[in-house]
């Protein structure tokens, strides 16, 4: 069942509120107004607040909806909004955000290559100068009165990116260029560009890194104030009320006390409330509000977040998945220079590279932390992940609360410090400013490498010289190993050196004398060779210089020729572009003209729709006056007929006028101009409005007030003509037999066949009844009849099952007897058996050669079963059972006899005793009525769905009875549903061409309650009449108001006199335009 209390989840958890969750955003109305005022006076606004103070939520769910509603005076309500985070490539991210959704891109989004080309062109323009954003907006040619708002969320990410740029020693800093783009575009007034940044207050000091940024923040700063206790009370109680639930004052006070005055507790509050709501939704009973027991079960604000995160971590049962989780969270977190926790978004591909895991393994771990009810990681759970998806921690508070993550962050900080020291030492060594590492630094670094197994993707977060650092570490290790071996070798050398030193010295003296003479001769030869080589080098250099001069002249000639050719091509291209531009402008103008025409036609159709509403409103007004206010019978008839004809005229006028309007537009024009996608959408809007109005006009479904007025007028004129059998005390429909069975005040049982065939307007639908005399001790139980084709079965007040055979119907036979009355009955064709309930038990009575009785279902004592229904096909016999507590049970009679079993638990009602069940096989609809007067409708119900895991959707009707729903019936074709109760009201629904959700929300086409307590009702075979009883009479009512119109017109009618016409109709329509009856009667 779809529980109305849990269809809306009112709390987002750690993530911020989104724009579409404005209806759940409470307690910040005053800051929104102040922020609008600040944006009106300054085009650059910095929203500053502590971590968890609600900066992003204030912009998305507070400011943006207000801008779209035009609450910013003198600016208008037409806004194009780009919301993004700077990340590791702020200019690229800005271009990427401006391209889709037609923000500043006018092409087709169906062509990915064209979209990517526009994005690259836009990024190039943005990087060209400080006026890049202004030039981009200028080229986009925004329509008049359209504004562009750039929202840079999590602006503090830019400082981490800037630090990374400086560590890489890049000459041109993207971070500074990005800031200059924002400042330059917001300082001019020619183009309507507005900029909002959100930033944590503990990063204010970092703003001095960028020239001009502190001054701009001082001019447009908005510091988010702390929420007052009343605002926090609204933020807690408001969403709960929207979700259809209540919170106890005790729990509200406890939560307000727990959150205290700390502004960074708001995300933790939202998460605790989300967990409390989830626990309450699964465990509450009836109308139970959210209370302390639900709040304490999730660990309160103090432990809820850590407890929830630890639950998710424990679901990663393998060590490999836990290792992936640890490395992933270390990658997604960062600590600033002052130890501040900062989120660091990363793509799935980057996480795969750092963890060394496959894409499938990483996404599996990510999904554990972002599944519905867990918002620790973004993107949302409904977004399908791929290698390019960006993953981020929902809020920094997770880094402060979850002990395991705190330890991981500490380990990551120590690991990064080790790597940075290693990278710096490697850089100094390469410059010759330091030597290789030795123990103990070398030993610590080697242990760090073996434990953490770093790779280049991870290392690039801190220093891009990973391979240099790795080589340095390896070289240090080899140097250490070399030094150890060298010491060993030197020890051996010293021993041998001492032994041969004397012999070597003598030998060397003799040899040195010989080589001194030989070296002197060779020196003279070398000096001569050097002189000759120098002469040859000078000659070669002169020849090379001449060749280079000749080549330079040839290159200059080639360049001049190429430049001339390029210029010619450029001029030809510019000429062609000018022609193309002229054609495009012509087609754009034509497109705008067609778009304006489509909008005018939509406006015309809406005007016709309004006229239609006026006609129906007037018709309903006349109908209400006829039914309730008018005592004069003939005037009552006149007003009812006038309301009916005015309603029909409303439908006819709507069909004709909208058809003429739609024919004014030639759809072939869409192929002759540019902006085809926009024009197609405009045409689709026109087509949808036209089709919706045509469907409504062709339905000809009169409002229930008109139906009720016609019925009241007929009864006022033809008193008691709707009574088809007087003195009937109780009756019920014998299943599948097209008979009505009832007993009269004289103690007789009457069985009457229903007429079939064409429609009749005499309201007499019963043929002559068969009469069965009952014994004095046989008191029949209303609605306890079952029909097998040859026999009629009935349950009695004193607990007996009796029957009559189709051979004169004159002998009363008894089958079984119990100690309490029979509450409900049903007949199974598959099993040739009778099923019935006594108190809290259901029995099956076999009708073969031997009548055997045995129980098939039982509930606890005093849980009486008043409603039974059988749904059968050739393979299944499903018994539907409704108990006194509002539960619906199902039992498969062919496969689980003697075993109590609930086959499909998706069938549930509202917790109130079930008194009536009805089923229509052609529409697969099951309806139940309970003691609170509520009606529930289940869609897609058949024997197959009830014996499988197929979900059966349920809906509760908006309209309800005032008392117990005692009777329900579908017409045989599934067109109509009727309900009646002990409160005396009968309702009729027209189910034609309606989906189940729409049926539950729409009003009945007829609702009246002038007949007193009602016990049962049925339809005739053709579905044109409802037959029902009051405590003393059997009555009939058509399902089509045309029958009442025919009867009223057959009796004739007077005409309005002038005073009556002016009083009730006036100048709304001319009297001669309405013909109340065919033939002028």
Q: What is the CATH domain class of the domain at 729-1032?
A: Mainly Beta
Largest sheet: 5 strands, parallel
Helix content: 40-55%
Q: Beta fraction of the residues?
A: 15-25%
The CATH fourth-level homologous superfamily of the domain at 729-1032: YVTN repeat-like/Quinoprotein amine dehydrogenase
How far is the first residue's CA from the last residue's CA? 52 Å
Per CATH, the architecture of the domain at 729-1032 is 7 Propeller
How many distinct helices?
Answer: 28
Largest beta sheet: what is the strand line-up?
Answer: 2-3-4-1-5
The count of DSSP E runs of length 2 or more, i.e. the number of strands, is 37
Broad shape: elongated
Which consecutive residue ranges, at least 5 long each, have pLDDT under 50? 1-7, 757-761, 898-903
The radius of gyration is 44 Å
Structural class: alpha+beta
């Amino acid at each position: 069942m779809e529980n109305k209390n849990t269809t809306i989840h009112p709390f987002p958890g750690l993530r911020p509120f989104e724009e579409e969750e404005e209806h759940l955003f409470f307690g910040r109305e005053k800051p929104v107004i102040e922020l609008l005022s600040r944006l009106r006076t300054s085009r650059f606004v910095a929203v500053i607040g502590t971590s968890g103070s609600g900066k992003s939520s204030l912009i998305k769910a507070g400011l943006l909806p207000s801008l779209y509603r035009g609450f910013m005076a003198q600016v208008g309500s037409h806004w194009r909004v780009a919301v993004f985070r700077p990340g590791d490539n702020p200019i690229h991210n800005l271009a990427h955000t401006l391209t889709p959704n037609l923000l500043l891109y006018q092409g087709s989004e169906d062509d990915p290559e064209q979209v990517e080309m526009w994005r690259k062109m836009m990024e190039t323009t943005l990087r060209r100068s400080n006026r890049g954003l202004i030039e981009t907006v200028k080229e986009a040619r925004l329509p008049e009165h359209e504004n562009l708002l750039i929202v840079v969320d999590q602006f503090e990410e830019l400082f981490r990116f800037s630090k990374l740029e400086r560590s890489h020693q890049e000459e041109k800093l993207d971070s500074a260029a990005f800031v200059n783009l924002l400042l330059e575009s917001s300082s001019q007034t020619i183009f309507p560009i507005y900029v909002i940044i959100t930033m944590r207050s503990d990063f204010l000091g970092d703003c001095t890194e960028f020239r001009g940024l502190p001054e701009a923040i001082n001019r447009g700063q908005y510091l988010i104030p702390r929420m007052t206790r009343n605002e926090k009370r609204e933020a807690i109680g408001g969403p709960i009320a929207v979700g259809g639930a209540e919170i106890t004052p005790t729990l509200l006070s406890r939560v307000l006390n727990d959150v205290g005055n700390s502004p960074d507790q708001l995300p933790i509050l939202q998460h605790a409330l989300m967990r409390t709501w989830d626990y309450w939704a699964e465990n509450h009973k009836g109308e139970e509000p959210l209370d302390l027991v639900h709040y304490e079960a999730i660990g309160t604000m103090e432990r809820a977040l850590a407890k929830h995160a630890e639950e998710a971590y424990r679901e990663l049962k393998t060590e490999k998945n836990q290792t992936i989780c640890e490395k992933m969270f270390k990658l997604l977190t960062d600590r600033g220079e002052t130890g501040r926790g900062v989120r660091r978004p990363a793509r799935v591909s980057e996480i795969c590279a750092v963890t060394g895991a496959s894409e499938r393994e990483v996404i599996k771990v990510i999904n554990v932390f972002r599944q519905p009810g867990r918002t620790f990681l973004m993107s949302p759970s409904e977004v399908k992940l791929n290698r390019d998806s960006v993953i981020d921690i929902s809020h920094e508070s997770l880094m402060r609360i979850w002990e395991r993550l705190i330890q991981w962050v500490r380990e990551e900080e120590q690991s990064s410090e080790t790597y940075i020291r290693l990278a710096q030492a490697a850089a100094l060594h390469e410059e010759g400013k330091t030597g290789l590492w030795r123990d103990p630094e070398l030993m610590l670094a080697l242990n760090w490498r073996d434990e953490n197994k770093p790779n280049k993707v991870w290392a690039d977060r801190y220093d891009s010289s990973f391979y240099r650092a790795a080589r340095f570490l390896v070289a240090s290790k080899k140097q250490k190993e070399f030094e150890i071996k060298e010491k060993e070798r030197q020890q051996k050398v010293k021993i041998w050196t001492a032994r041969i030193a004397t012999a070597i010295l003598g030998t060397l003296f003799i040899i040195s004398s010989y080589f001194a003479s030989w070296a002197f001769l060779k020196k003279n030869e070398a000096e001569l060779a050097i002189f000759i080589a120098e002469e040859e080098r000078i000659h070669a250099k002169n020849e090379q210089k001449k060749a280079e001069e000749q080549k330079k002249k040839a290159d200059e000639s080639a360049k001049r020729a190429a430049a001339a050719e390029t210029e010619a091509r450029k001029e030809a291209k510019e000429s062609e572009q000018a022609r193309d531009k002229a054609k495009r402008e012509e087609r754009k103008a034509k497109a705008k003209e067609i778009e304006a025409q489509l909008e005018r036609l939509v406006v015309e159709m809406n005007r016709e729709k309004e006229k239609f509403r006026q006609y129906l409103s007037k018709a309903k007004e006349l109908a209400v006056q006829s039914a309730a206010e008018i005592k004069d019978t003939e005037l009552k008839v006149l007003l009812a007929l006038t309301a009916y004809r005015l309603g029909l005229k409303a439908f006819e006028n709507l069909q004709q006028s909208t058809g003429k309007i739609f024919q004014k537009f030639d759809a072939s024009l869409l192929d002759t101009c540019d902006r085809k996608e926009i024009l197609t959408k405009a045409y689709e809007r026109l087509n949808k409005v036209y089709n919706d109005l045509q469907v409504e006009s062709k339905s000809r479904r009169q409002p229930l007030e008109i139906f009720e007025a016609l019925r009241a007028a007929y009864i006022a004129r033809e008193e008691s003509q709707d009574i088809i059998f007087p003195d009937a005390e109780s009756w019920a429909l014998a299943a599948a037999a097209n008979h009505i069975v009832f007993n009269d005040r004289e103690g007789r049982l009457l069985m009457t066949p229903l007429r079939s065939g064409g429609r009749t307007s005499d309201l007499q639908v019963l043929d002559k009844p068969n009469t069965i005399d009952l014994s004095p001790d046989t008191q029949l139980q209303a609605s306890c009849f079952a029909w097998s084709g040859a026999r009629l079965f009935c349950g009695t007040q004193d607990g007996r099952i009796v029957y009559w055979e189709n051979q004169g119907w004159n002998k009363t036979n008894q089958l079984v007897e119990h100690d309490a009355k029979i509450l409900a009955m049903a007949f199974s064709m598959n099993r040739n058996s009778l099923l019935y309930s006594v108190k809290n038990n259901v029995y099956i009575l076999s009708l073969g050669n031997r009548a055997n009785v045995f129980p098939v279902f039982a509930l606890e004592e005093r849980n009486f079963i008043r409603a039974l229904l059988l749904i059968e096909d050739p393979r299944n016999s499903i018994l539907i059972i409704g108990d006194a507590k509002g539960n619906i049970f199902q039992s498969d009679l062919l496969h689980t006899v003697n075993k109590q079993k609930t086959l499909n638990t998706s069938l549930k009602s509202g917790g109130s005793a079930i008194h009536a069940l009805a089923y229509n096989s052609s529409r697969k609809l099951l309806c139940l009525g309970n003691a609170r007067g509520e009606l529930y409708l289940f869609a897609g119900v058949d024997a197959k769905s009830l014996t499988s895991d197929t979900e059966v959707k349920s809906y509760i009707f908006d309209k309800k009875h005032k008392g117990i729903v005692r009777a329900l019936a579908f017409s045989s074709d599934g067109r109509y549903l009727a309900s009646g109760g002990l409160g005396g009201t009968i309702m009729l629904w027209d189910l034609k061409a309606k989906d189940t959700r729409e049926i539950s929300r729409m009003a009945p086409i007829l609702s009246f309650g002038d007949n007193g307590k009602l016990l049962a009702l049925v339809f005739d075979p053709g579905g044109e009449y409802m037959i029902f009883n009051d405590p003393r009479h059997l009555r009939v009512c058509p399902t089509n108001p045309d029958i009442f119109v025919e009867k009223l017109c057959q009796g004739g009618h007077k005409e309005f006199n002038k005073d009556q016409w002016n009083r009730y109709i006036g100048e709304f329509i001319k009297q001669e335009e309405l013909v109340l009856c065919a033939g002028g009667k």
